[in-house]
Amino acid sequence: MSNDQEKTSGGLTQQHTTLSLIQIFRKRPMEKSYQSLEMSVRNTGSKERIWESDRENKTDGELSLDQLKILTSKESKTENTQYYLQTWPEKNQVKITNFPHPYPQLASLYKEMIRYQRKDGVQLTANLYLPPGFAILSGPTIPIIGEGDEEANDRYVEQLVASAEAAVEEVVKRGVVRPDKIAVGGHSYGAFMTANLLAHAPHLFCCGTARSGAYNRTLTPFGFQDRTLWEATSTYVEMSPFMSANKIKKPILLIHGEQDNNSGTLTMQSDRFFNALKGHGALSRLVILPFESHGYSARESIMHV
């Protein structure tokens, strides 16, 4: 906001104060960046800080320059976003919203990003949640790595199991789970991983839930990896939990959208995998969600799963 010099009727000039409102990010030693607003007077060079974040909460804001009113939003790990109106030079702050927490039961939920290592030295991470009576490990990293000229998927099962073993060992070591009460679950590619883990690492999990997955990779001969089915037949077969259905002895729940339009996870993937499991006596159930695609939209479907 600026005003230039202008002439009065008597030929004199009047100097208007020039203001500049700046949003800056400032960093102190050993502290995270935070937001503040400063007012500077250009003709004198003086500055005054009129607002500063408390650095503990994320704050975004919009500023109305005409009357120097500042609209800010503030949130924290446990508090919902609220909006505040601040005025200058009074520096008064008024809370103008009172949005309730969308999930008050989870407001005090403990969350931690944990770091651990699998047996080949690869560093892994995951988000650990501890609601009352449960431990949830979300988004564990499961890298499948190829060395040199080796294709990563040539050792897919080996590295998948190694990552799962490392995750289980970490939560058991922390004392937040019982080793015989750990379930595994995933959606899409995560469902594919879930089925493979129940087939190749039954010692780790008591049961599993697989949503909208692909279980027979020979049904995606061109679209699964860089190599076609005919170029890497053994890899396609080894990676397909459908081919290891006879090894799955732990209970597994299959869920799939009736109208899955993802070319790699057509509904028949779950249909055929379920038939293979039942044919080998596995304890399994298939749930088809009416009218749903690869992702679920209906309230009934979301609440059901």
UniProtKB/TrEMBL annotation:
InterPro entries per record: AB_hydrolase_fold, Peptidase_S9_cat
GO biological process, one term: proteolysis
Domain Peptidase S9 prolyl oligopeptidase catalytic: start-end pairs: 165-300
Keywords, sorted A to Z: Hydrolase
Pfam families: Peptidase_S9 (PF00326)
Highest taxon listed in the record's lineage: Eukaryota
GO terms, molecular function: serine-type endopeptidase activity
Name of this chain's protein: Peptidase S9 prolyl oligopeptidase catalytic domain-containing protein
Organism of origin: Miscanthus lutarioriparius
Taxonomic lineage: Eukaryota, Viridiplantae, Streptophyta, Embryophyta, Tracheophyta
